[in-house]
Model the fold of this input.
Amino acid sequence: MALLVLIYLFVFVCATLSQETYMTFVKHTLRWAWPTLLGPARSVRSRLDCAIHCLQSFPSSCHGYLYNESTKICKPSSGLSPYSSPEPSDGDFYFNDSQSSYPDFRHHTLLNETQSVSAYAGYFTKPLTYTEAQATCQSMHSHLFVAKSVIKYFLFLNITTKEYSDWIGLDDLANEGRFVWADDGQEIDVYMKSYLFVSPQPDGQRNENCVYKTSIHDTVKALTFNDANCSLTFSYVCEVDLSLI
Ligand SMILES: [Ca+2]
Done:
């Protein structure tokens, strides 16, 4: 009987503990992603009180909050919305990153003795066509990765894996033979074109207008660029312009 009581107590305690909400809120710095507000503003004593108020009042939908340290005004929020923007008086935006719509984006930085480069990028390994990959990036306020310098290309190699072929934001869809970058439509310069493509690439003319980085298994020299049919499916990297972060 005593054993049964102990088992009951153990189950009861476990069930009680499992009802606890654990959530970490971190200050959000993405200027293109803002909270969707859940309810009216409330005056609280501290940022912690704001987090507790959000979780207690909106247990299933609280994913973040706006909090002004000076005025102590707290505004609970749910997910991110690209269509609204807070006022400066709203203070800082804190968000539960595990609930982020864009959990795969990270800051990537590469340093060498003379230069450095950074990108805020996500690597997506579900293979898509070039157009699908491009649209997916755009839906996340980003574009396919661009590698306009050698060090940026090395950063791309660090983000991706040698095992996969990966789309990069470079194509000559608009004008045959004029390969332009996905962020601003600028044509690849002569030096980078000769650095990234190994002869006879690009060789596809009208049949191959989209560019990917070859894998170690490719018939084209590994880890170089190849123009290919845009309907092939590869993994890809989306990149947010640093000016937007
Ligand atoms: Ca080719």
